[in-house]
Design goal:
CATH superfamily of the largest domain: tm_1862 like domain
CATH topology of the largest domain: pyruvate-formate lyase- activating enzyme
Structural class: alpha/beta
Number of strands: 18
Radius of gyration: 22 Å
Strand content: 15-25%
Helix content: 25-40%
Length: 466
Amino acid sequence: MNAVVNPIPAPSLAELLRLPPYQAYSYSYPHKTAYRPLQPPRGLRELWAGEPRDSLFLYLHVPFCSYRCGFCNLFALARPELAKVERYLEQMERQLRTTCEALDEHRFVRFAIGGGTPSYLDAAQLRRLFDMVERHATIDLRAIPAGIEVSPETVDEDKMRLCRERGIDRVSMGIQSFSEAEVRALVRPQQRAVVEQAIAAIRAAGVPTLNLDLIYGIAGQTVASFLASIDSALEHCPEELYLYPLYVRPLTGLGRIEAKAEAKFEAKAGARLPLQAEPMDERLALYQAGRDRLLAAGYQQVSMRMFRAPHAPDVAAPVYCCQSDGMVGIGCGARSYTSTLHYSSEYGVARRSVAEILDHYLERDPASFAAADYGIALGEEERRRRHAIQSLLIRPGLDRADYRRRFGADCLDHLPQLRELFAHALAVENGEWIELTDAGLARADTIGPWLASAAIVERMRDYRLG
């Protein structure tokens, strides 16, 4: 990793706690905005040779959607040409074949298709996707946890039946809100009847785990309307519910709307506004109300966002995630994680940027998939921080004994700043575990960024998003 010259001093936890709790979502560490071109590229065979390859996670990325939601900053393209979708599936198979050959002897024990919206594909295209996986990868989809992400308007009984027959046991659907006024505020054309039809199709297919995503912090949303959406979701008895705070990020639809409004205000005021902390809003109150409603319904809180029903299958299984070491990503926008290198294609949000990156992927020579050319190498410090962040933000928390086995010292010696969590009653020591309190979980989007290294923060700050 490049050395950082005179990095900006990191704020203390006490300083961050004076700001609104929603600073950034620590989905994966380091964030993709810390990735850069790899010079020279790293051959996959060499890269994976020293890694455990008997319990890998295979992730396929389908970067297509029927529309782009106003809040979405994922690598996705709305309404692509049919020919582009067909070419993409062909290229995915080339990448999958080359990657599996580079892995040599291997075994996948988890599988997910994400996006974008994988269910944007028609049934024949989905079947083609499953066929290529079984043709090239050492995997038994019917014997391992396997998930797919869908959107309501792209779900039908034929697709869900096919997915279940091929081994899918978890379907995750972003609803965001059961209020049509609120989904319109998210620039999301969606009707409640379509949502309920989609849920019925998923249930009819016999999928064991249904996950529904809801968003809080939408313009015009109140505690009462948010709880009404949660109650509507609970009527369908989902095995999992995720509550996501709304973030308005640059270059998204909502971000462009907000930027135009700010520009008009600044022009009227005659000067640029000074930089300031994000204003306080209602998201924390909404989160607390939603959390309390789900706990009262018997759901277990696993993380700030994730709640699991008492009737969910395999409650002792690892938390579903796509951010662990040993993940092999296939498709434009997919990330792969070894213990020492994270790699992917480039990252973009704006339609033009996404289209350019996708076109580059479609033009690649099949042999080029045998090397990683864009990503970030992780030194020992970053590996320790990654492990601490990922463990701490999910209950039961950070296992100090496991940390010592992995890294040869106690996590409080490597990361003494963790003690600040105890001082602010955001975490407790529970035997060998460091576990976030309820107040700590509520502050997960402050704690995650606070644990990032100065070097990663600097790389992310210098990234020019397209």
